[in-house]
Model the fold of this input.
Amino acid sequence: MDLTLPPDAAAWQRRARAFAEEVLFPHEEELELNGSLPRATKDALRRAVVEHGFNGINHAREVGGQGCTQLEQTVVNEELGKATGALWAVVAHPALPLREGTPAQIRDYLVPSCRTERRACVAVTEPSAGSDVRLVATRAERVGERFRIFGEKWFVTTGDEADYILVHAHVDGDPDKPTLFLVDKDLPGVRIQREPKFTHTYVFGHPEFVFEGVEVGADKVLGGVGRGLELTKDWFVEARLQIAANSIGAAIRALELADDWASRRNQFGRPIRDFQAIEFMLADMAVEVMAAKTMVYRVAWEIAQGADRKAVHARASAIKLYASEMAGRVLDKAVQIFGGRGYMRENPVERLSRDVRVDRIWEGTSEIQRAIVGGQMRKRGTGVFTGWPGA
Ligand SMILES: Cc1cc2nc3c(=O)[nH]c(=O)nc-3n(C[C@H](O)[C@H](O)[C@H](O)COP(=O)(O)OP(=O)(O)OC[C@H]3O[C@@H](n4cnc5c(N)ncnc54)[C@H](O)[C@@H]3O)c2cc1C
Done:
């Protein structure tokens, strides 16, 4: 069994590490201090993404992407996940469901998004619809050949930066017709009502949108009426793997910093790592990172081998659950090892400890991931998690 990283993936990893350290890290403190970056810096970062060849890493070359394998995307996301303030988000991953677009939609939305000329955000969650997406109240009423969209969406990540929105709405208010619409942000009736502050400092915002009778043609339906949930589920798999990889990157950076500090910090006449209480924390952190990384790389590799889509969906939930909770535990220990310095915002460990908290909430909470894992065991048996390909 050869578990060696293929040379191409190793090259992507090296490039991503350099990009994170040389291009993203220098903006971390400014972002933390000011809560946002100047427009000119955000534009420079967007250009840097293209210059370094990280645009559209999750899409095929034919549509302007990099054609990366899932494993290559994973190693890139791991390296980018080391940056605080979610600076990894400057490397946009155009939403996967865009692949299902018509030729015109691919030309007008996906291709320019892969080139970073356009940017999408995804609007599913609402005041009354979170984990239970069937409760979505946003409706798209048919008016002849066109639709009028009414509703309110919350937590729309990158909604401030994006120029179009993938809106999850129920056609005619029917929950059996969940549908994704491509909505240009400058259309009449699209309004940002609030931009709340969150625990983390995030390079972009998570505004709330209101859609007041926004009119779109049938050509803005993505993938067909009634396919919204199916397309969103596909996107969840990709997003959950990305979150897991980002979490691993955050945990590795925290472990490296805590390991270094524990060797340099002297108390009671010796480095604090000589106290078993500290060394055991470092050991637990290392073991947890190793376990999460092994899970994530395995599934990324399985996807390239053409693994069964449903099994991948099940394992993506297991991975997101484990990696996000692992990052929470590792970051908490890292803060503890730094003592008071771990509580200072100038310390990357402090920032990462806030950054990783949301990974247990978005793209399905930990409870929802457990419900998926439990449901999959009922349907397919425990082997989907305990088995091994080829066994
Ligand atoms: C910073 C941030 C960015 C986000 N970005 C986006 C975005 O870009 N687009 C978007 O559409 N959404 C986004 N979200 C929304 C996110 O996906 C939801 O917050 C998440 O799915 C949970 O929904 P909720 O907040 O309504 O919580 P609820 O669904 O109300 O859940 C509340 C609690 O109940 C638990 N719970 C609910 N149902 C069950 C169940 N069946 N079994 C056990 N426990 C249950 C949950 O686990 C949680 O602990 C974002 C959220 C945040 C915080």
